[in-house]
UniProtKB/TrEMBL annotation:
Gene3D superfamilies registered for this protein in UniProt: 1.10.150.870, 3.30.1900.20, 6.10.140.1510, Metal-dependent hydrolases, Nucleic acid-binding proteins, PolC, middle finger domain, Ribonuclease H-like superfamily/Ribonuclease H
Annotated ranges, domain Exonuclease: 414-580
Domain of life: Bacteria
Source organism per UniProt: Cetobacterium somerae ATCC BAA-474
Protein name: DNA polymerase III PolC-type
Length: 1442
């Protein structure tokens, strides 16, 4: 399709419209873009007005959908300055009609012209920056060119418009006053004169600009009121600076963005500075600012302050002080590792305890112990003890199915199935308003009971809405004291049955005791508990979902008579299942079906570590909770299992009751089952009382909640204190800490809401007061127990418990490698054997020195086993035909090279004679790559010498002391990865090998999304700054866990994993076969060996290429000149750039084929292996090339060879600048982990040191921006693999394309990609999309390869059900045969069927084909359409003619 149509119109076309002096020379019409350009010649600029008329006429004729533009030349080449300015004004007005930003910021401006620069003066720096950011300077230049003004550059500058603004204000004021006078005049006869109108100036007087010296005398306003101001009104606010960032503008000025909070709300402010030094405030400082309110259209119309005065306040954030003489120990804290509900990180918890002067603090996250290593680190070297603990979720597997079971036959017992309706959930206070019951003899209904009850008070509306029972219904009904004797007679000695029986029994037993003075203790069955065991796969076990599942009628849910009827029918079904299972006696019902521990009720239990035995037991318990008993999104532990493993542990009973977290003592108490409380308490070592506000979730204004008031909590705490003392238990007081400050309950609400696990507002929006109290605050909280008791539980008991606990270390010190006999000698022997083979004996002095230096570190620090383990894994893969690529810094080790672990030779570039009788070598001690050296003949024996060496220091790998635990990362073929994992288990024992665990937390963008969603859903209106502040506090909250894609943690034989950490399933996926470390694997880097066994495509591709060509990859010259050419052009491929749509020829070359890296190649045009290594390092880092090196290269501050490309560059450069080696290594590690932006104070210390040693400013700034970067050894390994594959592309193209496409077969679509025209159209379509997902990116890459393949003269052979391979593209007669899997919709199982069946015999019909291969009719139709299957009859039937 033609993209545009060019027309030469009649010369006087405009004269018909009455327009003179304008001639159209050409019309260019773009059908695709609906655009018409009219090329015009205009006599003089004065005649431009005629174009307005022409524009209106054309719009009427063609409609608004057509975009009409004029491109103008003038007959006269000289115009006046006045005409020039008029043209500029015309352009600006045209732009303002179509561009909202122009309309906002170009309403006040001045124009001046100097030489070939048009200066447009704007009212402030914000306007300048906004227009530049929107590229409006370029747009104005383009429009000016359309108007015949060429060669001029547009420049925006900030100016002084105060006099103009004052004039406008005066005019507005006069209008307002005049209007007011007329209104006053009109009503003067009716009312007294109105007070004079106060007029506020919209813009401050004076030149404006930023000032630090001028004091702001006006009082500050609350930030929450800022939204009430109008644009340009002056605002004065003060608060804490919690975030700031600055960037240099095109004008050379600095835009500094400030985020300020007063604790209730937050605001964004912007300042324009001449230099960074003008801004001397930092995060945490308190400031007062004055400036105009602005609508920042560049930031989604955020309301901001454009600051012109900033005062730094002499104020610091007040710290809470624990001033008590005798201080408590907080035994219950939750960190951000308490999934989506803990607000503070463990460092903050420990820090607050230190500030309070506490001797110890317990870390007790829900169900997990992820925070232990970080808690230990936070306390290390400080005067505080960490008490390691966990608030676990316990299932009481000792609870019988029948409480007080009888020795009776199930089918002969009498059962009364009952249900109560009450005035609320409080079984201590709320009255019963209805009893419904059904009597069963065995499974047969024999009687019914139904009675409404007058509670003697009004029925709350909430209860009326739920039950349908109102005051009128119960007005004339008997009271409970009159009802109970009759109901008890109806029950007799029957077994009671109810759904969620503890609830109903609490009310019933209370009133029987109160009115009949009987301690009623019958046999009781809870059908809720029973349902969970009988139907373990059910999602819901409430009465409604269960009756629906069992097809039992439930007419009026929440009416006692109907609920009891439905429960009775359901119970009869349950009894049937017991009888079918051979259970006939009630005594045998407990345990008759497996306990459904995954869905039974859980109760919280505190578990504190007393000593190392206890730590190991806790790790074991946490592991079992995650692997053996995990259910309903919770790690659960059985009560019996906890009891069996309680040695070294202290077990506590928390009294908490809040959403999904209840202690069993408090739960039983609020069910009014005090006998159960008295029975359960003996399991615990101590009782933990909690503040009253923590129970707010169950407090309702109408007294329908589980508690009527905080007096109920006081009563419970007194009861539990007295019972605890009676039973000899320690009773403690705790804050149940989830955050540090009171106001941070909002953050917990956001996290809970974002977790998706809450469904009622009171479960997440109620303030539970879970802040970290001081001793005096907690003493005051428990004062209702009496001062002495309050001190006892808060101070004395917590300190006594602390004294029972030893200091323990969560991960033992030292290195614990797996055991391989004689590993040290084997490593040394293997290294020297290979070294002698390559370099001769004796070795060159530099080679021997390097080997000895490395071996001393490796053997001396116990790392021999790690090297030997890696060598065995690599050898296993190589022996099976799969090449292995190294990753990470292992390429820095010459010992690793000699042992065959890596192909990267870390020595200086050198020549090496491969003649076994010669072995002459020559070293060139400089940076670079040996493969780039010119060819050389051995001066001793006359043969061509090998070129090797990449100049990589060993210290990058293991530090200058050689004591950094080496991290050996290896890329195995994706096809062979699982086999290597199995071999790893074979080497070290399956019970000693675990997947490396990871912990996923809320990142910045996700956290902002959670906050924004919470604000939107709850109609909270706050600006971006407040969203950011809240998000900062949400960041780091644990979301889930996972596993490293190839990391294997090895525990030595003779040791248990529980000596180091617990284990679990990745993301708690109970269907996963993987067992991962519970800790993030990084925290055990120094203790346990981690083998990175990663799956990668490149080794698979190499294997396929070797099979297709027979070429030994080790014979490929890595510096092949023709291969190097494709990284800077297309000549070596025999195609043009236009034919393949790329300046370089690296499609399909790993690490160099993406659009991003191809552009880097275009920008740098590399010609050597060493340059490719630099590009690989730059492209794989985060903020290493983009937003960093690219900018410094373009600005001329550095060249490609000077910028930081790999982490080694930093260490080497700093050493060259005179910085001590160990410090240079520390700075390198600090930078490559992205710490400068996170640990600002440490970075300032390092940057000052670098400045003092003459390190350039741009280099320091480059380091600051880096978030992550490659080691050189990694980059070299990648480039080696890339060069090998690229070699095949240049010299064995058919094999290359067949191998590439075989690896990408899942992204190949035969219907599309068998047609070159369609492929090119698809590329254009995909390139038009602003952002591609992973699938589309893969599709684009395959399409690009196919276009290139055709441009080089290679074609596909059609897919054929008899000739095509199942999944590989096969070379056949100089072409490439498409595999069966290339047909979209033909799955792997069908492919396997076709391959198997065609071997057994040809297909005799389409019916036969479908039957034998299980292929769908749709797929058969596709095969027929594309001639992939020979013409067959439709069926097997044949006609016989006689």
């Amino acid at each position: 399709m033609r993209r545009e149509i060019r027309i030469r119109p009649q010369r006087n076309i405009f004269k018909d419209m009455g327009i003179e002096n304008i001639e159209i020379t050409e019309i260019v019409f773009s059908e695709r873009n609906k655009k018409m350009d009219l090329i015009c010649v205009v006599s003089t600029p004065q005649d431009l007005k005629g174009l307005d008329k022409a524009y209106e006429n054309l719009k009427k004729k063609f409609g608004n959908e057509l975009d009409i533009n004029f491109k103008i030349d003038y007959l006269t080449k000289e115009i006046t300055k006045e005409n020039f300015l008029e043209i500029i004004e015309r352009v600006i007005e045209k732009l303002k009609r179509t561009n909202a930003i122009s309309k906002s910021f170009l309403y006040l401006y001045r124009i001046s012209i100097k030489n070939e620069v048009i200066d447009i003066e704007l009212k402030n720096e914000m306007a300048v920056e906004t227009l530049y950011s929107s590229n409006l300077d370029i747009k104005i230049q383009t429009l000016l060119e359309n108007y015949g003004i060429r060669g001029f550059r547009v420049n925006f500058i900030s100016g002084d418009f105060n006099s103009e603004i004052k004039s406008i204000e005066t005019e507005i004021e006069n209008k307002i006053i005049t209007l007011n006078s007329k209104v006053a005049e009109k009503v003067s006869t009716e009312k007294a004169p109105a007070p004079p109108v106060e007029i506020k100036s919209a813009v401050p007087m004076g030149r404006g600009g930023f000032s630090k010296k001028k004091d702001i005398k006006s009082p500050s306003m609350p930030i929450s009121e800022f939204k009430e101001l109008i644009e340009n009104e002056i605002a004065v606010v003060e608060g804490e600076l919690f975030a700031t960032e600055g960037r240099e503008l095109r004008t050379g000025k600095i835009l500094q963005v400030l985020r300020i909070t007063d604790g209730e709300d937050s605001i964004t402010a912007k300042i324009f500075l001449n230099s960074p030094e003008d801004f001397d405030v930092k995060v945490g400082d308190f400031v007062k600012i004055s400036g105009k309110k602005q609508i920042d259209s560049f930031e989604n119309n955020e309301e901001i302050i454009l600051v012109n005065i900033l005062n730094k306040l002499d104020k610091v954030k007040s710290k809470k002080i624990d001033s008590a003489d005798e201080k408590m120990i907080e035994l219950h804290t939750h960190t951000k590792m308490s999934e989506m509900c803990g607000v503070e990180d463990v460092k903050g918890i420990v820090g607050r305890a230190l500030e309070y002067g506490h001797k110890a603090v317990a870390i007790t996250d829900y169900g997990v112990v992820h925070a232990f290593p970080f808690a230990y680190k936070a306390a290390k070297g400080k005067d505080i003890k960490i008490i390691f603990g966990c608030e676990m979720y316990m299932v009481d597997d000792t609870q019988p199915m029948v409480q007080n079971a009888k020795d009776v036959l199930i089918d002969e017992e009498t059962y009364v199935v009952f249900d109560l309706e009450t005035l609320g959930l409080n079984s201590h206070k709320n009255e019963i308003i209805e009893i419904g019951a059904v009597k069963l003899q065995g499974r047969r209904i024999v009687d019914r009971y139904s009675q409404l009850i007058n509670p003697g008070k009004k029925i709350p509306k909430k209860i009326q809405d739920i039950t349908g029972i109102d005051d009128a219904l119960v007005e004339n009904m008997p009271t409970i004291d009159k009802i109970l004797p009759d109901f008890m007679e109806f029950i007799g000695d029957a077994t009671l049955v109810a759904h969620n029986a503890p609830f109903d029994m609490g009310f019933l037993k209370r009133d029987i005791k109160k009115y009949m003075e009987i301690d009623y203790n019958p046999a009781v069955i809870d059908t809720l508990q029973m349902a969970r065991d009988l139907y373990p796969d059910q999602k819901g076990y409430g009465l409604k979902p269960m009756t629906k599942f069992l097809k039992v009628a439930l007419e009026n849910h929440h009416r006692a008579v109907d609920d009891s009827q439905a429960t009775a029918a359901m119970f009869a079904i349950f009894l049937e299942k017991y009888l079918e299972n051979g259970v006939t006696n009630q005594l045998d019902m407990t345990g008759a079906f497996p306990l459904n521990y995954r869905k039974q009720d859980i109760r919280n239990v505190m578990v504190l570590v007393k000593d190392l035995v206890g730590l190991k037991n806790l790790y074991k318990l946490v592991s079992q909770a995650h692997i053996d008993y995990f259910g309903s999104k919770k790690p659960r532990i059985l009560k019996t299992v906890l009891n069996e493993n309680r040695e070294g542990l202290i077990i506590g009973a928390p009294t908490s009751i809040h959403f999904s977290n209840s202690g069993e003592l408090s739960e039983a108490y609020f069910r009014n089952d005090l006998s159960k409380v008295e029975r359960l308490i003996d399991f615990y070592d101590y009782i933990e009382l909690q503040p009253r506000i923590g129970f707010s979730e169950f407090l309702d204004n109408d007294e329908t909640g589980a508690i009527a008031s905080f007096k109920d909590v006081e009563k419970m705490n007194r009861y539990l204190y007295d019972l605890g003392k009676e039973r000899g238990k320690l009773v403690t007081g705790s804050s149940n800490v989830h955050y540090l400050e009171k106001e941070d309950h909002k953050i917990r609400s956001i996290l809970l809401y974002g977790s998706g696990s809450v469904f009622r507002e009171n479960q997440y929006r109620v303030d539970n007061g879970f802040y970290f109290r001081t001793t005096d605050e907690l003493l005051e909280e428990f004062n209702y127990l009496g001062e002495d008791v309050s001190k006892e539980i808060v101070v004395e008991a917590t300190n006594k418990l602390n004294e029972m606990i030893e200091k323990v270390q969560p991960i033992p010190s030292g290195f614990y490698p797996p055991k391989i006999d004689n590993a040290e000698n084997i490593v040394r022997e293997m290294t020297y054997t290979k070294a002698y083979e390559l370099y001769g004996n004796p070795l060159p002095e530099n080679v021997e020195a390097r080997i000895e230096r490395e071996l001393k570190a490796i053997i001396g620090n116990g790392f021999s086993v790690l090297y030997l383990s890696a060598q065995k894994l690599v050898k296993k893969s190589l022996d099976n035909g799969y090449l292995v690529g190294s990753r990470g810094s292992v390429g820095s080790s010459i010992v690793a090279y000699m042992m065959g672990i890596t192909e990267v030779n870390a020595l200086y570039p050198h020549y090496l004679c491969t003649n076994p009788e010669c072995k002459h070598s020559e070293f060139i001690e400089r940076e670079g790559a040996g493969v780039d050296l010119p060819d050389k003949i051995c001066p001793k024996c006359g043969i061509q010498m090998k070129k090797d060496g990449h100049s990589i220091p060993f210290e990058v790998f293991m530090g200058f002391n050689g004591d950094k635990v080496p991290d050996i990362d290896l890329n195995f073929s994706g096809e062979y990865q699982s086999e290597i994992h199995r071999y790893c288990e074979e080497l070290f024992g399956k019970s000693n090998v675990f997947k490396a665990g990871t912990i996923s937390t809320l990142a910045e963008k996700n956290a902002e999304g959670y906050v924004r969603k919470f604000f939107e859903d709850h109609s909270i209106f706050s600006g971006r700054a407040e969203v950011m502040r809240m998000a900062q506090k949400c960041e780091g909250a644990k979301k889930t866990t996972g596993q490293h894609p190839g990391g294997m943690i090895v525990v030595p034989q003779g040791n248990s994993i529980y000596e180091f950490c617990p284990v679990q399933r990745p993301a708690n996926d109970q269907n996963s076969d993987s067992t991962t470390t519970h800790y993030d694997y990084h925290v055990m880097d120094e203790q346990l060996v981690k083998l990175d066994i990663l799956g990668h495509d490149d080794p698979t591709t190499i294997k396929i290429l070797q099979e297709y060509t027979g070429v030994d990859v080790y014979d490929i010259p890595l510096g092949d000149p023709e291969t190097l050419k494709i990284f800077s052009g297309t000549e070596a491929l025999g195609v043009t750039q236009e034919e393949i749509g790329s300046v370089v020829g690296t499609y399909g070359v790993p690490e160099f084929g993406t659009g991003f890296v191809r552009q880097m190649l275009v920008d740098t045009m590399p010609t050597t292996f060493a340059e490719l290594v630099r590009i690989s390092g730059l492209s794989h880092g985060t903020d290493v090339w983009l937003n960093n090196a690219q900018e410094f290269v373009r600005e001329g501050k550095a060249t490609l060879s000077q910028v930081i490309s790999v982490r080694d560059d930093i260490m080497n450069f700093l050493i060259d600048q005179g910085i001590e080696k160990g410090t240079a290594f520390k700075i390198m590690e600090f930078v490559r982990k992205g710490q400068p932006s996170k640990n600002v104070a440490q970075w300032k210390e390092y940057s000052d040191l670098m400045k003092s040693h003459g390190v350039p400013e741009w280099y320091i700034e480059s380091c600051r921006r880096i978030k992550y970067m490659f080691p050189k050894g990694h980059a070299v390994a990648y480039v080696m693999m890339a060069m090998r594959i690229a070699y095949f592309k240049v010299h064995y193209p058919l094999a290359f394309y067949a191998a590439y496409l075989s690896r990408k077969v899942e992204d190949f679509d035969f219907e599309l990609m068998n047609d070159l025209v369609k492929v090119k159209e698809k590329i254009q379509e995909l390139n038009r999309e602003p952002k591609l997902d992973v699938k589309k990116k893969a599709q684009l890459a395959v399409c690009e390869i196919i276009v290139e393949m055709h441009a080089r003269g290679f074609e596909f052979l059609n897919l054929d059900v008899y000739k095509s391979h199942g999944s590989k593209f096969i070379i056949e007669d100089g072409k490439i045969r498409v595999p069966l899997m290339g047909l979209n919709g033909l799955g792997a199982s069908v492919m396997e069927n076709i391959v198997r069946e065609r071997e057994l015999g040809r297909f005799i019909s389409y019916e036969d084909f479908k039957r034998r291969t299980k292929t769908s009719q749709t797929t058969v139709d596709k095969l027929k359409e594309f001639n992939c299957i020979e013409s067959l009859s439709e069926t097997n039937q044949t006609t016989l003619f006689f």
